[in-house]
Specification:
10 helices; alpha+beta
Length: 637
């Protein structure tokens, strides 16, 4: 009997000791990330049968259980992956928002300053100071375009670096998880399937950290290992095997990195939009949805400004009496040939209507024969061409021979617009503020005919003799007139019907004659000499500020930029709000999960007292058993 009491007491003592150790372990790890509370599971020993019934033999420690709720843990992981993506996206777009909306460093003040200087030239076209100020303001505007674009390019380079860092972190976590899988399988096999709780916690913590880099899904295996999957189901960890990710140069754009999947000797480029969640997902989403879009939009404003200002400037005349040239250099589209192409064809893109530019990038793929498929990447709309060249969205696309089926090209019409715009002239005298033509009515005229100042046509004919003198003499009767001048086919042209106020157009100019001329009345259109004070073209240049020349004629330069700023600002606020809400939801999920699996110090303190008393009682039982045993020995003596 004493031996039975002793054995039962020892089992109770052991159980209490393990309970104390487990409780102390919980308390020690109350602040350990990823730690799940543990508790001791006890079971009574098999009772001993006797004539008086079944007599208890003490207690067994069945296991030390890890208090883990898989459903809640999965909810936390899903929420954290989304929260991490939103936080990364919000932080990145915040940089662009601060830059574009800056009242001093943004584009708006530079645009306003430039057109204010153009108006000053219109007010005093002969002023060298006003002209020099206009050139200085133009250079400031160009510098502002270039600095904004450079900042966006710097952000793109930063994204490349962060993608590389994220991929490195993902691979490191994957290696550690695979190593933990090995240790867990060995531990369970060595200890009769008992769960190595702390190893499981460490592995789950690694998976949680991995999940904050990229969203993962996990499948548990029978041997205790976990398989980890990413993206569209690519296996990152299978037992002890690891398939790594790799940051690689994009086939169609050497300036950016993409994510590829390495399995054995194979490297497979992943669809970037399949990599959702986590820090990496946020970086990729920001680049494709915001950075590319805003850089293209800024470039479009620069390209439309350069083209429309140049077109009007070339219709004017400078102080040297020469027709105006380009005021700005005209940026051109970028065409990137995929590094995977096997053909030798070259694709060219040119802007024929800047106003029609959408700001989107395009993917062009050769289908074989002469057919191509063009995909507008902003909305994935597809157009199939039987042959090239073709014009779409203000862009003419042409190609040389040598393409092979499957060859692809990325066309970025406006990406370098803000980078490549520049002031094309440095001499203030070359600002074409005046019109190249001047109209005149002969002093000898006796009728009431009047001639307008005339305008230069926006589209000049080939080899237009714009500055050659042209005379118009009314016939008898004065219902017709005769036109004489260089560049006029069949000159002199007689019998031209006269309608008061109707357009008369030759050599690239248009004017109107009104009133009632009489036979012999003469009107001339000639080169505008001594035109230093003529401001007609400067006024037209200044009026471009408020004309809707961007986005298919729906927005001005300033309006298009304001839309860009508004778009970024709205997206920034939206992401900030959603990110805060998501973070709050994750915190609530963590609190719920911790209420089940976390360490409660009050509970653990109570457990300490409970196990301490059990330990003391077990010790007392052993002491009594020892006394009984001594008594038995003395009786035997």
């Amino acid at each position: 009997m004493a031996i039975g009491i002793f054995g039962s007491g020892v089992s109770a003592l052991n159980a209490a000791q393990i309970g104390l150790l487990t409780t102390e372990h919980n308390i020690a790890n109350v602040n350990t990330p990823g730690f799940n509370r543990q508790e001791v599971l006890l079971g009574s020993r098999l009772a001993q049968a006797s004539g008086a019934g079944f007599i208890g033999q003490g207690v067994n420690v069945s296991s030390v259980k890890r208090i883990y709720n898989e459903f809640l843990s999965n909810q936390v992981m899903q929420g954290q992956a989304q929260a991490s993506q939103l936080e990364t996206y919000a932080n990145q777009i915040g940089q662009i928002n601060n830059m574009l909306a800056d009242p001093d460093a943004g584009l708006s003040p530079a645009l306003q300053e430039f057109f204010s200087a153009v108006n000053d030239v219109a007010s005093s076209p002969e002023s060298q100071a006003a002209r020099q100020s206009m050139l200085g303001s133009a250079q400031s505007l160009v510098s502002r375009f270039q600095s904004l674009n450079q900042r966006m390019s710097d952000i793109n380079n930063s994204i490349n670096g962060q993608i590389t860092s994220s991929v490195t972190a993902i691979n490191s976590y994957a290696q550690q998880i695979a190593s933990m899988n090995k240790n867990i399988v060995l531990a369970q096999a060595a200890f009769n399937g008992q769960a190595p709780n702390d190893l499981l916690d460490q592995r789950d913590q690694l998976i949680s950290q991995l999940n904050q880099e990229i969203k993962v899904s996990v499948v548990k295996q029978g041997d205790g290992s976990l398989n980890v999957f990413i993206g569209a189901g690519q296996s990152l960890v299978v037992g002890e095997q690891v398939n790594t990710l790799q940051a690689v140069q994009a086939l169609s754009d050497p300036s950016r990195l993409e994510v590829a999947y390495r399995s054995g000797a194979s490297v497979i480029r992943l669809q970037q939009n399949s990599l959702q969640g986590g820090n990496l997902g946020g970086l990729l989403a920001f680049r494709s949805e915001s950075l590319d879009v805003e850089q293209n939009a800024l470039g479009r404003v620069a390209m439309v400004l350069a083209d429309t200002f140049n077109q009007q400037h070339k219709l004017g005349q400078d102080l040297n009496g020469t027709l105006g040239g380009n005021f700005f250099t005209q940026p051109v589209p970028v065409v990137n040939t995929s590094a995977a192409n096997t053909g030798s064809a070259t694709v060219n893109a040119s802007v024929v209507s800047p106003s029609a530019l959408t700001g989107s990038d395009y993917s062009l793929q050769f289908n074989g024969g002469t057919a191509y498929t063009l995909t507008r990447l902003s909305d994935n709309s597809v157009t199939v061409f039987a042959t090239l060249p073709q014009t779409v969205d203000g862009l003419t696309i042409a190609t040389t021979v040598g393409a092979i089926t499957g060859d692809s090209y990325t066309i970025r019409p406006t990406v370098n617009g803000a980078r490549d715009i520049a002031v094309a002239i440095s001499d203030p005298a070359k600002i074409a503020a005046s019109m190249p033509i001047r109209t005149n009515a002969s002093l000898a005229n006796i009728g009431t005919g009047r001639i307008s100042a005339g305008t230069v046509n926006t589209t000049l004919p080939t080899n237009a003799n714009l500055q050659q003198p042209v005379s118009i003499v009314f016939d008898s009767p004065p219902t017709t007139f005769t036109v004489t001048g260089v560049g006029i086919p069949g000159s002199p042209v007689a019998g031209v019907a006269y309608t008061a106020g109707s357009d008369v157009s030759y050599n690239g100019w248009t004017m109107q004659i009104t009133g009632a001329p009489v036979a012999g009345d003469t009107f001339t259109v000639a080169n505008n000499t001594n035109a230093a004070t003529d401001n007609r073209n400067a006024l037209l240049l200044a009026s471009l500020q408020t004309q809707n020349t961007v986005a298919g004629g729906t927005a001005s330069y300033q309006g298009a930029y304001a839309q860009l700023v508004s778009q970024v600002g709205n997206k920034t606020r939206e992401l900030g709000t959603i990110s805060l809400a998501q973070t709050s939801m994750v915190n609530q999920l963590i609190q719920t999960q911790q209420s089940v699996s976390g360490v409660n110090l009050d509970e653990e303190a109570a457990n300490l007292i409970r196990y301490q008393r059990a330990y003391q009682a077990a010790g007392k039982a052993i002491q009594i058993a020892e006394t009984l045993f001594d008594t038995l020995l003395s009786l035997g003596g």
